[in-house]
Write a structure and sequence with these properties.
This protein is α/β, with parallel strands linked by helices. It contains 19 helices and 32 strands. The protein folds into two domains: 4-311 and 388-482, 3-Layer(aba) Sandwich (Rossmann fold), CATH 3.40.50.12780; 505-627, 2-Layer Sandwich (GMP Synthetase, Chain A, domain 3). Bound molecules: adenosine-5'-monophosphate-propyl ester. Adenosine-5'-monophosphate-propyl ester is lined by residues 243, 289-290, 365-368, 387-392, 415, 480, 482, 494, 497, 503, 508.
Length: 631
């Protein structure tokens, strides 16, 4: 273990000499053709990692281990919803993924074609992803909690050749049929996939339409076929993952192949206690970036078994996560603070009943980790709780404590130090000049972004440049849209978003997308959605709605508005409250003052209101607040 100073020197070297640093790290993966060099950076902010190199994510995640440890567990698929559990060895995963890859090819899908995956947490979801990687098809996983409107927008942007879906998922014992949502989405979308591969779990009745193919029959036809992993140029897009931004249109985060494999391998080694044969358990979902990096690819690339869990933290009882840790001797666990807050309310005996001594650490990410929760879980588990801060865009942690490289202590409230490869700069929001030490600034990353980070937005280089690098022209600074502050030792504290993105139970949602969903209701003239503090979920959306003349406001309309959000985006985005107002507080140029609304609702000072057009509109919200129930 190294001291804080040693780590800072290593971090500095990774920034000053990316060539040297990443050439060494690149040796952690198999290359069919070794790269010419680590970095080509002649078109900033577009970085090209490992040019000349050819590799394959599926080879590094599956075949490499199937060759040396074929019988070792790779995927441990547990569903507390259906009461099932099945472990697949690396050899079995290789066989399944080969069959899926052969099926894709038989359906005319090849290198560069998109495969959209709309699936619950079942083994087939991982097979579908890995099979795409195997043949150089580009997967785009859409979270199963998204409804038809969000799904249709992603179908139209990614234009998939194939869609892979299942009849249903299940949550808290309630079956959620996916097929009707998919059919509705296909009804809305302009794009048509060639085929839809349907996994039938027998949970919800459905009919195969003319473009649907039954997965079991299809895969059975191709079982036994050996489809080799195709060597792909390092820059070949491995996947697209949509995430929310300031506008209503989701951003298609695009990732490469070689850089991603190297970054994940490095992070597994230096951050996540990676060890072949160890067990990794992340409670996230394949629909999110944590699921991509730390359920599917990262653990497998490190030769670990990964638990694919369909279930919640409290069913059948609040000890379920810890019983899985004990049963499978989990080495590394990863969850979100919301799950811990949920468990904190329960009897601690549920935790104490299970032997969690196999755990090296519990990692948490996705939203701020509050101190009481951090202290409670650290005491209860007796292992380090390692907060890590990152984004869909970066693919792996920007800030944390790299335990393999540094023994610096955890500081409550801070995820830690900049991770190797990330040139973190806190800057003034207007000038891009460095914020003074101890002063709040926008957390930016100086280009080149490290390997594994997004290389562009799907088919939109211009938006990639303007959305992320546009705030500080000429400075090549990527904005995370988060506020941060650094202490004298370099520990960074995250202070919330600078934009209109909110974080509900670790799920990133755009308030503009929710507003768009609300305005699909014919009675709505105008709306503003803000995220307000919630003791369990971190934040929760609430909506202020101006009704069109002639329409009556009331509980029925509020319920219809909530339904519109559930239909367009999904239940996870439902506003917790709908408040009818005569007007929205706006600036004279017509911009809604969301920040001021949020402040008023959270009983904070709304700040500078010199640009407000109509103070009465904000006052009306203040009065509503006094009558509204506390969260
Ligand atoms: O605002 C930050 C918050 O979540 C955003 C990224 O969300 P997403 O793209 O879904 O990626 C999650 C990957 C773990 C960030 O811009 N965020 C993420 N991690 C933390 C966090 N806020 C505070 N502390 C964290 N550890």
């Amino acid at each position: 273990m190294k001291s804080l100073e040693d780590y800072k020197a290593l971090h500095q070297a990774s920034i000053a000499d990316p060539e040297g640093f990443w050439t060494r790290e690149a040796q952690r993966i198999d290359w069919s053709t070794p790269p010419r060099r680590a970095l080509e950076n002649d078109q900033p902010p577009f970085a090209h990692w490992f040019p000349g190199g050819e590799t394959n994510l599926c080879h590094n995640a599956v075949d490499r281990w199937a060759a040396v440890r074929p019988d070792a567990p790779a995927l441990i698929c547990v569903s507390t919803e259906t009461g099932s559990e099945r472990t697949y060895s690396f050899a079995e995963v290789k066989a399944e993924v080969s069959a899926w890859a052969a099926a894709y090819q038989a359906l005319g899908c090849g290198q560069g074609d998109r495969v959209l995956i709309y699936m619950p947490m079942i083994a087939e979801a991982a097979f579908a992803m890995l099979a795409a990687a195997r043949i150089g098809a580009i997967h785009t996983v859409v979270f199963g909690g998204f409804a038809s409107g969000a799904l249709a927008a992603r179908i139209d942007d990614a234009k998939p050749k194939l869609i892979v879906a299942a009849d249903a998922g299940s949550r808290m014992g309630k079956v959620i049929a996916y097929k009707p949502l998919l059919d509705q989405a296909l009804g809305i979308a302009d794009h048509r996939p060639d085929k839809v591969i349907m996994v039938n779990r027998g949970l919800a009745p459905f009919h195969l339409a003319h473009h649907d193919v039954d997965a079991e029959t299809l895969i059975a036809e191709h079982r036994g076929k050996e489809i080799a992993c195709i060597p792909l140029p390092s820059a070949h897009p491995s996947y697209i993952l949509y995430t929310s931004g300031t506008t209503g249109k989701p951003k298609g985060v695009q990732r490469d192949t070689g850089g991603y494999a190297v970054a994940l391998a490095a992070s597994m080694e230096h951050i996540f206690y990676g060890q072949p044969g160890g067990v990794f358990f992340s409670t996230s979902d394949i629909g999110w970036v944590v699921g991509h990096s730390y359920i599917v690819y990262g653990p497998l690339i490190a030769g670990m078994a990964s638990i694919v869990y369909e279930g919640t933290p409290t069913r059948p009882d609040p000890g379920i996560l810890w019983s899985l840790v004990a049963k499978h001797r989990v080495r590394t666990m990863f969850t979100a603070p919301t799950a811990l807050r949920l468990l904190k309310k329960e009897d601690p005996a549920y935790l104490k009943a299970h032997d969690c001594t196999s755990l090296k650490a519990l990692f948490v990410a996705g939203e701020p980790l509050d101190e009481p929760t951090a202290l409670w879980i650290a005491e209860a588990l007796g292992v380090p709780i390692l907060d890590n801060y990152w984004q869909t865009e970066t693919g792996w942690p920007i800030l944390t404590l790299c335990r393999n490289l540094c023994d610096a202590p955890v500081k409550p409230g801070s995820p830690g130090l900049p991770v190797f490869g990330f040139d973190v700069r806190l800057v003034d929001e207007r000038t891009g000049q460095p914020a003074a030490q101890g002063e709040k600034g926008v957390l930016t990353l100086a280009a080149p972004l490290p390997p594994g980070a997004l290389t562009t937005l799907w088919q939109d280089d211009a938006r990639f440049q303007s959305a992320y690098f546009g705030d500080f022209p000429g400075q090549n600074l990527y904005s995370t849209f988060d506020w941060g502050v650094q202490d004298e030792e370099g520990y960074t504290f995250i202070l919330g978003r600078t934009d209109d993105v909110i974080n509900v139970a670790g799920h990133r949602l755009g308030t503009r997308e929710i507003e768009q969903a609300i305005t699909t209701h014919p009675a709505v003239a105008d709306t503003a959605v803000v995220g307000v503090a919630d003791p369990l979920k971190g934040q929760t959306p609430i909506a202020f709605v101006v009704v069109k003349g002639g329409h009556g406001a009331g509980p029925d309309l509020a319920a219809e508005i909530v339904q519109a959000v559930a239909r367009e985006i999904g239940a996870l985005a439902k506003p917790q409250g709908v408040y009818f107002v005569p007007a929205l507080p706006k600036t004279r140029s017509g911009k809604v003052l969301r920040r001021a609304i949020q402040a008023v609702w959270e009983d904070r000072d709304p700040g500078d209101l010199t640009t407000i057009e109509d103070e009465g509109a904000l006052e009306a919200i203040r009065i509503l607040r006094q009558g509204a129930p506390s969260p």
